[in-house]
Amino acid sequence: MLNDNIKNQLQLHLVVFIWGFTAVLGALISIGALPLVFIRMVIALAIVGIYLIFTKKYRSFSLKEIALFFGAGIVIALHWFTFFHAIKIANVSVTLACLSTGAFFTSLLEPYFFKRPVIKYEVFLGGLVILGLALIFSFETQYFYGILTALTSALLSASFSIINAKLIHKYPNDSVIISFYEILGGVLFLLAVLLIGGSFSLSAYVLSGSDWLWLFLLGSVCTAYPFIASLNIMRYLSPYTVMLTINLEPIYGILLAVMVFGEKESMTPQFYLGGLIILLTVLANGYFKNTAKRRQKI
């Protein structure tokens, strides 16, 4: 029998693998990043809403709590927008590799939000991720704006991970409802952006059959399920461990992108060496975390 820690680690890796696949879907979908994320969140909102109706897990929250959930939803909406925009102006491999800096951002932000001391090895491992990233992009300078956009996405991802960790510790049995409000907040925010920007037009959403297929997969399998699952996982794993494991997203996503797009996603040997450094960093974090837990039990 697998213990709860291993089960949560395995589920987290499944979620991260699915997130890696979202980058491939983003490249396959022909529309721009803003309408793409809006449709993605609308589909996810409908699925989570239907799930809540059938499971009857709804409970009321105060306006202040709902506003907090909406704020988290805006952060994830901005993360997804910058993520897909980076894919559009660079490529899948570049964007996913940049997300690895999320662990470094988390190692800096988490001690402040959780009022705990800085753990030296977390900063050290975050520095190794930066080293891997520097090695990657010392030979990929043509993607400068894509890199900046993807790094912004990584910072937003780290911030969202920490916000959700605090929420799930405060509301441990309400992950699905929190997900619903977060996605709803993101949908309302993006709708406001589209309306204010004057770019909301029904004609813009007359898409091909393949686009709608990829969008449905993106909104359901790649959004609704991992969104809820990741919240549950955060009840048992620290935000830093979650964020560092998310560093495997570039590995999974790049492999999938090379399989789907072939030469378009082929990068330099230094790129893959940097990816290997990131992978080894994830494994090192798991080792240090398990060692620390064993010592606590002694």
TrEMBL record:
Report the domain of life of the source organism: Bacteria
Entries under InterPro entries matching the protein: EamA_dom, EmrE-like
Regions crossing the membrane: 12-31, 37-54, 66-83, 89-109, 121-137, 143-163, 183-206, 212-233, 240-259, 271-288
Q: Does the record bear Transport in its keywords?
A: no
GO cellular component assignments: membrane
Q: Does the keyword Transferase apply?
A: no
The leader peptide range reads: none
Keywords tagged on the record: Membrane, Transmembrane, Transmembrane helix
Which part of the chain is the EamA domain?
14-137, 145-283
Query: By its UniProt entry, which PANTHER family does this protein fall under?
Result: ACYL-MALONYL CONDENSING ENZYME-RELATED (PTHR22911), MOBA-LIKE NTP TRANSFERASE DOMAIN-CONTAINING PROTEIN (PTHR22911:SF79)
Task: Please report the name of this protein according to its UniProt entry.
Answer: EamA family transporter
Name the species this protein comes from.
Avrilella dinanensis
The organism that produces this protein has a lineage beginning with:
Bacteria, Pseudomonadati, Bacteroidota, Flavobacteriia, Flavobacteriales
